[in-house]
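seq as requested:
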Amino acid sequence: MISVVIPCFRAGILLSEAIESVLAQTETDWELILVDNNASEETKEVIAKYSDLFPQKIRCVWEGDQGVCSARNRGIDESRGEFIAFLDDDDQMYPERLAIQRAAMIENPEAALCYGGIDWVSYDGRTILEKNAKDGDFPFFFSSATLASALARLRFPEPRPSSIMLRRDVALKIGGFDRHFDPILLEETEFYFRIAQMGPFVFVTQPVIRFRMPSPEFLKKKRVDNVRKVRLLLNQDYFFSKIKKFLEERQLLDNPFIKRDLSRMKARWLREISFDFLATPGGERFARLLLWRAIREAPGDLKSVKHLLRSFYPLRLRERRYRSQQVYDEGIPKEITEEFLLSLFEGKHHCPFCETSGSLSGNFGRGLSTTHPEGSQKTIPFSAGPT
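struct tokens:
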């Protein structure tokens, strides 16, 4: 059997299209788990409607800890199938998706995960913007991936979660998603990194989902009172620290190729973090600090120099060039200081969220932890698996 897991948050009526796409599958041996992750009232109405209509196939469970990691972990916890397929609440499956991916997993018993092509569609779902697109690989470790492949798989695909199917025992063995990454950012990348240590990924060439491009209004509705920039920066720092610890335990940190790739990674992230500061009144000094750090990490990358020069443009020009969904609309949070920005990507992560989600773990995992409405908690232990 295949367990389809849909985390439900603020998709509203779009969730009904996601559910209908599961009901239309040519593969019939499946169950659908709708994870109510503090869903909006409109979304709850959709959940209730389909749970009542198809009680033999659709179950609703509740997850109070906010974020996709906690929600997907609850779905893994509740699953009964040999395979797990994820679907976001605003995307859709093609009718053959489950059958195609199940066959690919059976044909490749060594594979830990299967993913497929995606059709990018407009927010209204009427227009295919790009057909059968393939997601890329983790963009770092250019030089060292081949060199270190015997000890660690440093290059791995980063597919959209809606397009993946994996073995349930693999998900349990690696401990599911790391809840430190709630509510979003890098949770999937870190998850794929650990899965890559368990076995290869299989790609099916045909599109398996319709990935809906969100409108600015929909993004704002999903993120308001939920996504905080400080938390996103801490998530990036946490991920970098885990990568560094992973490499250190395999005695790879002194390798010159590894060092160079880590520096490139730091330089790119420092540069990209600076963009939101460049669009914020009074943020220039923070942007320049970050860009100088990026230049020191990768002196040959002229992109950071270009953005440093732009930091001297008038604010109105910078706002036009760097405006984004994650900009500091209410000013720069008091938690962000020069000391805080200088501490990023030094491999010594510490933040308040570590105290609730667990300390930094060298094997990249921790148990599947589920908080229920009555406050009880249960944990499924895991093993790190082969490396």
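The first helix runs from residue 14 to 23.
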